[in-house]
Design brief:
Length: 278
């Protein structure tokens, strides 16, 4: 795992942060559905015309839908994918699967987590319960092993999944790169331990003393973080508790068909407006 320990200046623009992702890379995205995803970073991948990315996430939605719509993602390892109850399935993701433009390794959320855990622990596979009878085992060629202690039934084991990058949307970061998430961290912790490199988009920078006062709230320590950007409202049109809620009208506008609607959505994003004022 590559660390950011020897890089004292980790702050950069979200444009430069996205430029660190090479074509063909595998990228794990934090958050869940429309909640605290690194969406400003995802949009920047689209603007930069990245190609052939693999997206890894237990419960993506808007992020993978946008990357499929723009032709950036061609491979994915995902569990459930949806735009949540208000909007149903992710239409561009579904179309990419149906037309063969996206190659999917289908997972349950638990199996994808098991693969990430294996990578984080430095082992080739991780046991996972609850998938007996699922066709996922046959589709993916997963194996099961006998209990070496002779006390239980055979258990399915999931191969290690090590993303090239994990990209986390955080509430707060300090100048060293320590990361805080307020509320549920979803699967961000295990992603950050499994990936080779960790990139962060934060709502704001706070003093290191804030982290020292509550060290238990630190989700990712600075020595795991390669670089970070600060983008207020960076999870738009999703939520980032407790700062803001989902912008439902913006998602409705995103779902309008055509290139003009997509470009209008990208132009309305917070990071686009931030860049214009710099």
């Amino acid at each position: 795992m590559s660390s950011g320990f020897n890089n004292p200046d980790k702050h950069m623009s979200v444009q430069d942060l996205a430029a660190l992702i090479p074509d063909g890379a595998s990228v794990a995205l934090g958050g869940s559905f429309l909640h605290r995803g690194p969406f400003s970073f995802v949009r920047e991948l689209v603007r930069q015309g990245k190609k052939d990315l693999e997206i890894i996430k237990q419960s993506p939605g808007y992020d993978i839908d946008l990357l499929c719509r723009a032709g950036v993602a061609t491979r994915a390892r995902t569990g459930i994918v949806a735009l949540e109850g208000n909007f149903g399935l992710a239409p561009h993701y579904r179309k990419a699967i149906e037309t063969g433009r996206l190659k999917l390794e289908e997972h349950a959320c638990a199996t994808l987590t098991a693969g990430l855990r294996a990578a984080a622990y430095g082992i080739p596979f991780q046991p996972c319960a609850g998938i007996h009878g699922s066709e996922l085992t046959e589709i993916n060629g997963w194996q099961k092993l006998d209990d070496p202690y002779g006390k239980g039934d055979p258990v399915w084991v999931i191969p290690a999944i090590q993303p090239d990058f994990a990209v986390i949307q955080a509430n707060e970061v300090d100048s060293r790169g320590n990361v805080r998430v307020l509320g549920t961290s979803h699967w961000d912790r295990i992603m950050s331990r499994a990936a080779k490199r960790v990139l962060v988009v934060a709502e704001r920078v706070v003093d290191t003393e804030v982290f020292e006062a509550q060290p238990e709230v630190t989700l990712v320590p600075y020595f795991l973080v390669q670089a970070y950007a600060v983008v207020p409202n960076g999870a738009w049109p999703g939520s980032c508790w407790p700062h803001y809620e989902i912008d439902y009208p913006a998602i409705e506008q995103y779902l309008e068909p055509g290139e003009q609607a997509l470009q209008a959505h990208l132009d309305a994003a917070p990071e686009a407006k931030q860049e214009q004022t710099v």
